[in-house]
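Exercise 7.
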Amino acid sequence: MDFCPKCGSILQTSKKASSTLRCPKCKYQKPIEHKESIKKISLHLGKAAEIAVIDQSKEAMLRQLPTIHIVCEKCGNTESETWTVEVADETIHSTITFFRCTKCKTTRRESG
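Solution. The predicted structure, written as tokens, is:
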């Protein structure tokens, strides 16, 4: 596989002259050397992936984070999802706890 020295696109075999490689963008042309062999590659595209659409009423069933009773500083809701991350360096060991309000999605953190 050769690339165009001007724009970097993949050079393709010319339809008119099979002994020439041609850039589809900038029209650069390069003769094919005898030691280069041309192989055609076929791409077979599979079925497109389906996109899942989640109804907001069923969104809560898919949550995997534990919830705790803590008051949200922004909206006053009393339920938040929580998770903990440990930060370790050569000299420092600390734990950060995150809280995400289940109503307004505001996230806050506490170091411990």
